[in-house]
C-alpha cells in the first residue's frame, strides 16, 4: 500500500478520525470535512509549508485552539488531507480494471498518479511513512490492485508493483514541479542557463574523462524530461513484470 503517513500520536484515534462521517459537527458548527477541505485548498495554493493549524483555523473561521478539538495536530491533518485527495484520483474516470489488460491498466495508473500529483503538488512533498488507513487511500489501493489480481503475481508482488509504479510517477512529478518552480522564479530560459554554465563547466572539468556523460548530455535536447523518463522507466518495469509472469 502506498505510504505517506506522518502520524506521531495515537494511531487508533487517527484511524477513527479518517473514517469519521463527514457530517459530524462540533460545537463550533465546523465539520471535519470542512477542515480537511480547507487544508487541501491551502496546500494547493501555498504548498505544504503553508498548511499550518493556525492558517487552517483562520480559513474555517475558528480559533486555533478550537481546531485542536477536532484534529490533534498537523501530522494528523496532513493524513486527513492526503486521504481526501486520494479519493479523487479516479473520481468520474474509468477505473484501472476497466482497461483492456494489466499493462494498459498500469500505464493508466501511472498517468493518473502523475496528473494527480501535478494537480496537488504538496502531496509529493509529504514525507513517506506508514500506510494511511483512511477510506480514500484504501479504495484507491483496491482499485489499483484489482487491475493486476489474477495475472500471475503473488499478493506481495502485486503490492510491490503498485507501489513501484506510483513511486516512479511521484518521483517524476516531483522533478517536474521543481523544474516549473525554478523556471517561474528564474530570469533565464533553460537555453540561456546552459549557455552561461557550459563554458565554466568545460573549463572546470578539463582533464576529467567524461566522454560518455558528455556524449549522452549532448544528445539531450533539454535540461530534463520528467514525463519521458517516467514513461521509459515504467516500460522497463512492465517488460520485466511480463517476463516474470510468463516464466
From TrEMBL:
GO biological process: negative regulation of DNA-templated transcription
Protein keywords: DNA-binding, Transcription, Transcription regulation
Domain HTH tetR-type: 29-89
Gene Ontology molecular-function annotations: DNA binding
Residue ranges flagged as DNA-binding region: 52-71
Keyword field contains Heme: no
Pfam families in UniProt: TetR_C_1
Matches recorded under InterPro entries: Homeodomain-like_sf, HTH_TetR, Repressor_TetR_C, Tet_transcr_reg_TetR-rel_C_sf
Transcription regulation recorded as keyword: yes
Record protein name field: TetR family transcriptional regulator
Organism: Antricoccus suffuscus
Organism lineage: Bacteria, Bacillati, Actinomycetota, Actinomycetes, Geodermatophilales
Amino acid at each position: 500500500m502506498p505510504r505517506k503517513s506522518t502520524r506521531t500520536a495515537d494511531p487508533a484515534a487517527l484511524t477513527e478520525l479518517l473514517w469519521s462521517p463527514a457530517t459530524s459537527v462540533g460545537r463550533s458548527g465546523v465539520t471535519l470535512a470542512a477542515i480537511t477541505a480547507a487544508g487541501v485548498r491551502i496546500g494547493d495554493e501555498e504548498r505544504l509549508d503553508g498548511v499550518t493549524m493556525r492558517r487552517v483555523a483562520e480559513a474555517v473561521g475558528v480559533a486555533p485552539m478550537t481546531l485542536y478539538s477536532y484534529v490533534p495536530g498537523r501530522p494528523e491533518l496532513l493524513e486527513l488531507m492526503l486521504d481526501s485527495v486520494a479519493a479523487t484520483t479516479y473520481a468520474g474516470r474509468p477505473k484501472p480494471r476497466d482497461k483492456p489488460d494489466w499493462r494498459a491498466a498500469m500505464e493508466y495508473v501511472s498517468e493518473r498518479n502523475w496528473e494527480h500529483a501535478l494537480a496537488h503538488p504538496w502531496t509529493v512533498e509529504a514525507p513517506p511513512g506508514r500506510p494511511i488507513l483512511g477510506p480514500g487511500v484504501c479504495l484507491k489501493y483496491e482499485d489499483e490492485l484489482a487491475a493486476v489480481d489474477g495475472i500471475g503475481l503473488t499478493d506481495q508482488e502485486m503490492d510491490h508493483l503498485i507501489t513501484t509504479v506510483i513511486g516512479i510517477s511521484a518521483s517524476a512529478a516531483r522533478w517536474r514541479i521543481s523544474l516549473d518552480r525554478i523556471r517561474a522564479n528564474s530570469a533565464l530560459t533553460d537555453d540561456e542557463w546552459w549557455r552561461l554554465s557550459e563554458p565554466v563547466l568545460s573549463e572546470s572539468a578539463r582533464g576529467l574523462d567524461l566522454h560518455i556523460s558528455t556524449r549522452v548530455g549532448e544528445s539531450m535536447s533539454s535540461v530534463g524530461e520528467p514525463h519521458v523518463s517516467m514513461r521509459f522507466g515504467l516500460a522497463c518495469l512492465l517488460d520485466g513484470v511480463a517476463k516474470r509472469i510468463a516464466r
